[in-house]
TrEMBL record:
Coiled coil: none annotated. The keyword Translocase does not apply. This is Aldehyde dehydrogenase. SUPFAM superfamilies: ALDH-like. InterPro entries: Ald_DH/histidinol_DH (IPR016161), Ald_DH_C (IPR016163), Ald_DH_CS_GLU (IPR029510), Ald_DH_N (IPR016162), Aldehyde_DH_dom (IPR015590), Aldehyde_DH_NAD(P) (IPR012394). It catalyses: an aldehyde + NAD(+) + H2O = a carboxylate + NADH + 2 H(+). It comes from Coffea arabica. The active site is at residues 212, 247. GO terms for cellular component: cytoplasm. GO terms for biological process: aldehyde metabolic process; response to abscisic acid. Keywords: NAD, Oxidoreductase.
């Protein structure tokens, strides 16, 4: 049984939306400013919640959640006038004389279901898009990050217009109750299995969806690179992003047999510089979110098929749910660790004879959310861009594309559908209404019956 009356809540939201207030420029600006204020005044509370949920290091919380959101909000405030403006487009002879424009309009009442790993960012970034586009919105944060969920509920309740912006906390029963309602858009972040449940619920009402999912994001390392920089950027994207619990973290690496020893040595030495000799004691590594995920990752490491393949790390601290940065070499393709998204601090390295052979490995799997390549070879870069399908590609870095708001962020195939960030967030929550304006002049009789042969010859 649901713990709240979803139908009554929806009725209230529909009323707020129908009043027209969320459509006004002023309302959108006031809500975006309220979000900025909430983040500035309560930064410590937010960082504390993230520490409680994930032992997320303060700098990661700030840079990877709060600062990104402030930028996102700031950009929406700066660009909102332009985004809301109708876009004039060309017309054809067939409608002469006429003019045409594309008018963005809000979709109505939308639902955002978010995940636990970046619980603040992944909750509020879509909400920024929904508000900027003029919708009423309900946010359902993840129950797996309860401290952040509760801070979100409290602060949004305090700062936002609660008639049109709501937070519903809870797990499967609450989400199920929400999904029974008819939404104008559902924006879901999480795994593909639940995405199918969300999609089935949305289909009943023909509700459009954005699905922000994950997958096995590969990183290819060529031999002609600045290895120290490459290693540091791989570490930053893997262990420096929530200890690998990030949708865009490199899931596995591929390099040549010849180059693997150099890559491994450099990763090892840089890891030691970042996290010390005993990384389980480091305050700069997030813990695994809960014992379910800790056990899931332990199972990947206990798989008989990878016995003897751990070449670095592997230490675990079950009491504190910590797993050290772990590197594995040449694990079999049919091992558990290569069959599912790792979403944690384990990095298998596969080796190939020729760096371009890595493309076949990537193409043999579902399309990932991101794919990375480190190289100085121009031809290889071009082939990578042409041949590898993924939500996004980055050359000579990892994860940083998500900090570029002029790029759409989203998956393809199993890694998701639709995209957001910057103007793409506004578009994700808008309908682009086609408007054709004609006058009474130039009314050609040829379009009207009777369709005489003379008209046909025109
Ligand atoms: P999660 O467990 O927090 O679940 C996501 C949301 O789904 C939660 O709000 C949860 O309450 C809801 N949910 C769970 N079971 C449900 C059910 N049976 N019915 C309805 N709702 C349900 O997060 P997760 O799925 O463990 O997240 C990790 C996955 O998300 C990974 O695959 C990761 O790659 C992906 N991810 C993607 C992005 C992205 O932006 N593309 C970002 C973060 C995570």
């Amino acid at each position: 049984m649901a713990f709240f009356d979803a139908a009554a809540m929806m009725k209230g939201l529909r009323g707020a939306y129908a009043s027209g207030k969320t459509r006004s420029y002023e309302w959108r600006v006031s809500q975006l400013k309220a979000l900025l204020k909430l983040m500035s005044f309560h930064e410590k509370e937010i960082v504390d919640a993230l520490r409680s949920d994930l032992s997320k290091p303060e700098l990661e919380s700030f840079l990877q959640e709060i600062a990104l959101l402030k930028e996102s909000c700031g950009l929406a405030l700066k660009e909102l006038h332009r985004w809301m403006a109708p876009e004039k487009v060309k017309t054809m002879m067939t409608t002469f004389p006429s003019s045409a424009e594309i008018v963005p309009e809000p979709l109505g009442v939308v639902l955002v279901i978010s995940a636990w790993n970046y619980p603040f960012l992944l909750s509020l970034d879509p909400v920024i898009g929904a508000i900027a586009a003029g919708n009423a919105v309900v946010l359902k944060p993840s129950e797996i990050s309860p401290a952040t969920s509760s801070v979100l509920a409290k602060l949004l309740g305090q700062y936002m217009d609660c008639s049109a912006v709501k937070v519903i906390e809870g797990a499967v029963p609450e989400t199920t109750a929400l999904l029974e309602q008819k939404w104008d858009k559902i924006f879901y972040t999480g795994n593909g299995k639940v995405a199918r449940i969300v999609s089935a619920a949305a289909a009943k009402h023909l509700t459009p969806l954005v699905l922000e999912l994950g997958g096995k994001s590969p990183v290819i390392v060529d031999s002609n690179v600045d290895l120290k920089v490459a290693a540091r950027r791989i570490i930053a994207g893997k262990w420096g992003c929530n200890n690998g619990q990030a949708c865009v973290s490199p899931d596995y690496a591929i390099t040549t047999k010849e180059f693997a020893p150099d890559l491994i040595d450099t990763l090892r030495s840089e890891l030691e510089k970042f996290y010390g000799k005993d990384p389980l004691k480091s305050n700069d590594l997030s813990r695994i979110v809960n014992s379910n995920h800790f056990n899931r990752l332990s199972k990947l490491l206990d798989d008989d098929k990878i016995s003897g393949k751990i070449i670095h790390g592997g230490q675990k601290d079950i009491a504190n749910l910590k797993i050290a940065p772990t590197i594995l070499l040449d694990v079999p393709e049919d091992s558990l660790i290569m069959e599912e998204e790792i979403f944690g601090p384990l990095l298998p390295i596969l080796t190939v004879n020729n760096v371009e052979d890595s493309f076949n490995i990537i193409k043999s799997k579902d399309k990932p959310l991101a794919a990375y390549l480190f190289t100085n070879n121009k031809k290889l870069k071009e082939n990578f861009i042409r041949n590898i399908s993924a939500g996004g590609l980055v050359i000579n870095d990892t994860t940083m594309h998500l900090a570029v708001p002029t790029l759409p962020f989203g998956g393809v195939g199993e890694s998701g559908m639709g995209a957001y960030h910057g103007k793409f967030s506004f578009d994700a929550f808008s309908h682009k209404k086609a408007v054709l304006l004609r006058s009474f002049a130039g009314d050609l009789s040829s379009r009207y019956p009777p369709y005489t042969p003379k008209k046909l010859n025109l």
